[in-house]
Amino acid sequence: MNVSEVNQNMAIPQRLPANGSDRFNYMVSYLSDCQLQMVLEMDGHVNQQRLLHAMEASTIAEPIMGCRFIKDSVRPYWERRSDLASSGWCSLQLLSESDSEEKAVQEWLSSPIDIDADAMVKVRILRTSTKEIVCIKLNHLCSDGAGLIEYVHLLASLYSELAQKPRYVPKSNPEGRDQSRLFKEMGIPNGGMPQAPEPQGPTLPFTPGEPAKRRQAIRRIPREEWLELAQGFKQKGFTVNDVLLAAYMRALSQQMENIPEEQIKVMVTVNVRKFLPTGKADAIYNLSGVVHASMNQATGSFADQVKEVAEFMKNQRDNKEILHDAVNTFAFVENLEFHHTLKIIQDVRKQIVADGNSTPILSNFGMISTSQISFDDVKVAGAYIVSPAYYAPGLMLGVSTYQDCITLNISFFESNTDIGVIEKLLDTMLEEIKSYKE
């Protein structure tokens, strides 16, 4: 597939506007390493050349995937790039019987990206004699976690289509990222002021300094055990998010130094696509809002805490103001000259480090798929998402589910955060969650 010829024949613009959420995501690059990653555990071998062709086709279906972000000081934009073929964006690593698959996965997850120079997506195939693990990195500049899930489904679909029609070229979608059009059609006013920022809450102890040695701590609850737990939550009238948030708050309170429980805050990300007419976006981009939760109960059991959280979250599930505030935030950022927005986030970052406060984040990316994903005849046996590593004192817990196996993950930098604290935080969460089935 000659992407350059397709670009010309399909009249894909060489430049695409950067919308408000793109600019907002670039601001987030001052707070995290902007890596959204997914690990796919395959039950066989994929064809590397066909996967590469599927990645090329994805830059036609979703043109943003074939662009780089240009930081114009006034109005940044996306520019189509012609060097992807030589960028090494789809690589293969052969593993011998003596090689550790887990070590290879961790090394890839820990490897950095250059958000300005690297491709929006990078893939590493870790191949053994019988199976392989496909690891996908997506630059957070162009998408959120829900967009990563959409991209993996797109990639699997294109791979399967190319197996039947090697010269297949997908329909392009250069107009789909026009969020202002979508919001206008929905009758959402674009131009109101976003809510005033919430004061930052306490976080884990950290060591100031430059971030180095990215790590990720991961915990998984297997299918049968998780199905039993989830069914128990449902019977009690609680959602998975209710239990996760309560467990996260209690685990945080145990790991924080000299912080009263009633001061614990968590910022919960919300995929606001559920408020759209079709329940999904027209293209891959960021469309997330936030809910600020706080722990008001200083004493009591975990069951009491779940009830309190559930009562609070019940009033937030259908709150369209979350979408409206996200729209207003994106519009506010878009209406500023870009250098002003960067100055704002630089000042925010300095203040966070100086104060030592940064409200921890919970991002439940949800179900990766309601059914098993297939790349033609190769099935995805297991999958999980690895969230970005936030710069201390920032902290994000990422959660994802695939084939009824749930994965909890925190990415961090070893130079700033004690790995023992992160491991203990996740272990405490699992203990609380599993205790709730009694």
TrEMBL record:
Stored Gene3D superfamilies: Chloramphenicol acetyltransferase-like domain, Nonribosomal peptide synthetase, condensation domain
Region listing for Disordered, in residue ranges: 190-210
Annotated TM spans: none
InterPro entries: Alcohol_O-acetyltransferase, CAT-like_dom_sf, Condensation_dom
Protein name as annotated: Condensation domain-containing protein
Residue ranges constituting the Condensation domain according to the UniProt record: 33-166
Pfam families hit by this protein: Condensation (PF00668)
